[in-house]
Specification:
Helices cover 51% and strands 16% of the residues. Strand 25, helix 22 and strand 26 form a beta-alpha-beta unit. Catalyzes the hydrolysis of ATP coupled with the transport of calcium. It is found in: Membrane. It is an enzyme of class 7 (translocase).
């Protein structure tokens, strides 16, 4: 492409080799590699080339663990990179072939004509063609905070700036790296996945606390083993004393010390649950990718986990709870109801002409008539499209009407004024000012209405009440009411100077009412079920809308936000201006009860969010307009609409709802709870492995001077825990069971009393069985007929094998910490089943074929059954345990003590970010 594409080079994410290099910097692994090298050298010196097994097996084990973990982290990184690409993919309105269409910002080329609206981002460098009150915020490029008005005197627009007000068209002159924005973005790294979430901070603290305990145990084991070794209380596999003062060679003594040291370091490696913070990354990467298919794009990592704690959702009405497919179904013209609303036979020609003139000019939409008699294409906001389609039915030829008159000034619609106007110069040089907006607001500015005789009629009290009653009746049916009015202006009142005209305030009083129309916007299918699901999950849904209170009330009843007519009264139902007029204390008191806020401004939404947060709620709020940005930023989770949302709203949000559907928001809540639940499952699983491995090695070391789980075996255990375990449990899809719980409290401990109960039952069982096998296994299994060396190897292999199978079976228990049926939905999680199967296969290979590396021997089929049986018993034990009520007081106090310091760090970090 001659002028280049509208893209810029992005910094590549870390490669696989980078992750592998980072893994090599792990202090514990470095110590293990040094120990492995020493053992390798000693083994070869002592036994020749055959003596490489001890050191070589540890080295290979360390390398294998590092490679698997690097692959896991690299894949997670790739997922985050793909999601970051989606964040940059902004949709823009362009005109091609006379037709307005939405395209990706990356597809814009030089020469394209771009339509700009409030909240849009300027997608490329260009020049102003036409527009009204087009104001640009250039702070992102110039650093200045002043809003710059663009017109023919100041026509240049820079990529990356935001439209603060007005609307207009621009022609693209430079794209991509030929713009200042492109050069700036190319120099910035967008590695958003480097963000550390609050949950990762908490887990890092928990890992540090547990790691200290593990380090203490490992140090104790090291000291005890060294004392036993040098005092002659340690025997080799043949029953001979390993160290005799004055007789054992330095080389043999050094070999023994290094092996002891290696075991202690391996215990530390297993004891430190470094997989805890990493499992958050795995869970988020998986969940964010899945949420994309559920029409939600996560912009900030912490929002994903925070959604599990949401207690209230402040939702817009239009397009979120409704379909945003509006049609004009009722119309009041000439002081009477017109049925059907496009029946021109009941209307005088002058009235139709004025309506068509208003509809065609007072709009930011467009109409395209394809060749070949195809259906007319109407573009614009849903309200604009509905009124344009109504105008076409009235006989409007959009292009002809637009060509007959010229727009000399405009006051674009915004959510604060709730009306927009335009001044048009007719062929006879007469100027008409047309207004369109919220029916009661425009009606209040009218002093006359157009009568059937084509002349303005004074709007007396009786007729005013008639129109108000019409608005109430339409609103009660859930219709959005829009009024259309105009005012003819005398020539001498219209500025002729270009500068004066640009600053002219369109007259908005003494208007002549042309029509009041009611627009039907049906509720989305399934929205009532979605609202009920939120209520069942302990999440209160509140509607905050700019529509009038009666329309909001009707839709709220239809959606189930208001349960009955009895609830549809103050303070459950309130107008924005009433809430705004209250004192802060009154707002705090009333906010809890508000279910519907009608005729609200973006500032009212912000006040409601602030009040709810002060009441202790975790608030999610939806928004699509530029003025919604403060509320989106203030809320715990800002949810921007992907279809109707402006770029300013999207950039202020944490999550983008790609289809604007409320049901998609509920899915995000499910995923948020799933993230938290999956992390808790992994914590329960990993702590069980940690505690059991620590206890059996520590007890065995103190009692006999030997450990049943050697360094290579512990590396394999670590792999099962940190990488395979994280993958298996982090990818559990959300279930309906999650929506039967209440939201997760912000200060709720990560390790709940239920988790403690499950963990302690499994730890007690595994430790008891494995220690019995370790100390009495030879007698119980009748291994006396074998040599002492072989019997000990068989016993140690069985302990190792039983330990691994206990973890495999316990992985199923961890899936459902508080449910009896641990197999529910397990076959649908193919990754979980695949990882469990892979673990079993690898364990069989290790025992049957890699004995020299792991210091194991082949087991008979009977001992394989024993290993499986030991693991299997954990299932009925878990079921029985779920009938026991955990001791909430003791365990909750302990959990609070463990997490207290971590919580302080999280709070300090969040405050510093704010």
């Amino acid at each position: 492409m001659w002028f280049g594409s509208n893209t810029y080079p992005r910094r590549k994410g870390n490669s696989f080799w980078r992750f592998l290099y980072d893994g090599c910097e792990d202090t514990t692994l470095i110590i293990l590699m040094v120990a492995a090298a020493a053992l390798l050298a000693l083994g070869i010196i002592t036994e020749g080339i055959k003596g490489w097994y001890d050191g070589g097996s540890i080295a290979l084990g360390v390398i294998f663990v590092m490679v698997v973990k690097a692959m896991h982290e690299y894949k997670s990184s790739l997922k985050f990179q793909n999601l970051n690409e989606e964040k940059q993919n902004i949709q823009c309105q362009v005109v091609r072939g006379g037709r307005r269409m939405m395209i990706s910002i990356f597809d814009i080329v030089v020469g394209d004509v771009i339509h700009l609206m409030i909240g849009d981002q300027v997608p490329a460098d260009g020049v102003f063609i036409s527009g009204y009150s087009l104001s640009i915020n250039e702070s992102s490029m110039t650093g200045g905070s002043q809003i710059v008005v663009k017109d023919h005197k100041s026509p240049f627009l820079m990529a990356g700036c935001k439209v603060a007000d007005g609307s207009g068209k621009m022609m693209v002159t430079s794209v991509g790296m030929n713009t200042e924005w492109g050069l700036l973005m190319a120099s910035i790294s967008n590695n958003d996945n480097d963000e550390e979430t609050p949950l990762q901070v908490r887990l890092s603290g928990v890992a540090m606390f547990i790691g200290k305990i593990g380090l203490l145990v490992a140090a104790s084991v090291l000291v005890i083993l060294l004392i036993r070794f040098f005092t002659g209380y340690t025997e080799d596999n043949e029953g001979k004393v390993e160290f005799i003062a004055g007789k054992t060679s330095v080389k043999d003594a050094l070999d023994g010390v290094i092996k002891i040291f290696t075991v202690a370091v391996a215990i530390v490696y297993v004891a430190v649950p470094e997989g805890l913070p990493l499992v958050v990354t795995s869970t988020l990467a998986y969940s964010m990718r899945k949420m994309m298919s559920d029409k939600a794009l996560i912009r900030r990592l912490s929002a994903c986990e925070m959604m599990g704690s949401v207690t209230t959702i402040c939702s817009d009405k239009t397009g979120t709870l409704t379909l945003n497919l509006m049609t004009v179904v009722e119309a009041y013209i000439c002081g009477k109801k017109i049925d059907p609303p496009n029946d021109t036979s009941a209307l005088p020609p002058k009235i139709v002409s004025l309506l068509v003139e208003s509809v065609a000019h007072n709009t930011t939409g467009s109409v395209f008539f394809p060749e070949g008699g195809q259906e007319v294409e109407v573009s614009g906001s849903p309200t604009e499209k509905a009124i344009l389609q109504w105008g076409i039915k009235l006989g409007m030829n959009f292009d002809v009407v637009r060509s007959e008159c010229s727009v000399i000034h405009a006051s674009p619609f915004n959510s604060e004024k709730k009306q927009g106007g335009v001044a048009v110069k007719r062929p006879d040089s007469e100027v008409h000012v047309h207004w369109k907006g919220a029916a009661e607001i425009v009606l209040a500015a009218c002093s006359r209405y157009m009568g059937s005789d084509e002349s303005p009629v004074p709007l007396d009290y009786g007729k005013l009440e008639y129109f108000k009653k019409a608005i109430e009746d339409m609103s009660a049916k859930g219709l959005r009411c829009v009024a259309i009015a105009y005012k003819p202006c005398a020539q001498e009142t219209v500025p002729t100077d270009e500068d004066d005209l640009a600053n002219w305030g369109l007259p908005d009083d003494d208007l002549v009412l042309l029509a009041i129309v009611g627009l039907k916007d049906p509720c989305r299918p399934g929205v009532r079920d979605a609202v009920q699901l939120c209520i069942q999950a302990g999440v209160k849904v509140r509607m905050v809308t700019g529509d009038n209170l009666l329309t909001a009330r009707a839709i709220a009843l239809e959606c189930g936000i208001l349960g009955s007519n009895a609830e549809a009264q103050e303070p459950n139902l309130i107008e924005g201006k009433s809430f705004r007029a209250m004192s802060e204390d009154q707002r705090l008191e009333v906010a809890e009860r508000i279910s519907v806020m009608g005729r609200s401004s973006p500032n009212d939404k912000l006040l409601l969010v602030q009040a709810l947060r002060k009441r202790g709620h975790v608030v999610a709020v939806t928004g699509d307009g530029t003025n919604d940005a403060p509320a989106l930023h203030e809320a715990d989770i800002g949810l921007a609409m992907g279809i109707q949302g402006t770029e300013v709203a999207i950039e202020s949000s944490d999550i983008v709802i790609l289809d604007d559907d409320f049901a998609s928001i509920v899915k995000v809540v499910r995923w948020g709870r799933s993230v938290y639940a999956n992390i808790q499952k992994f914590i329960q699983f990993q702590l069980t492995v940690n505690v059991v491995a620590l206890v059996i090695n520590a007890v065995a070391a103190v009692s006999s001077g030997d450990v049943p789980l050697n360094a290579v075996q512990l590396l394999w255990v670590n792999l099962i825990m940190d990488t395979l375990g994280a993958l298996a449990l982090a990818t559990e899809p959300p279930t309906d069971h999650l929506m039967h719980r209440h939201p997760v409290g912000r200060r709720e401990p990560l390790i709940t009393s239920i988790m403690w109960r499950n963990l302690l039952i499994q730890v007690a069982y595994q430790v008891l069985v494995l220690l019995v096998l370790n100390f009495r296994g030879i007698q119980i299994l009748h291994l006396h007929h074998s040599s002492q060396q072989h019997a000990k190897k068989v016993k140690n292999t069985l302990v190792f094998n039983a330990f691994i199978f206990a973890q495999i079976f316990n992985e199923f228990n961890a899936r459902k910490p508080d449910e009896i049926n641990i197999f529910k939905g397990v076959t649908k999680n193919h990754l979980f089943m695949g990882i469990v199967s892979l673990t079993v296969v690898l364990q069989v290979i290790i025992i049957m074929f890699l004995g020299k590396f792991t210091a194991t021997v082949r087991l008979s089929w009977q001992l394989w059954l024993v290993s499986i049986a030991i693991g299997f018993i954990s299932w009925p034990l878990a079921v029985i345990g779920k009938f026991l009520t955990p001791s909430v007081n003791i365990l909750s106090i302990y959990s609070h003590h463990v997490h207290r310091n971590v919580e302080r760090k999280v709070e300090m970090r969040m405050m510093s970010e704010c």
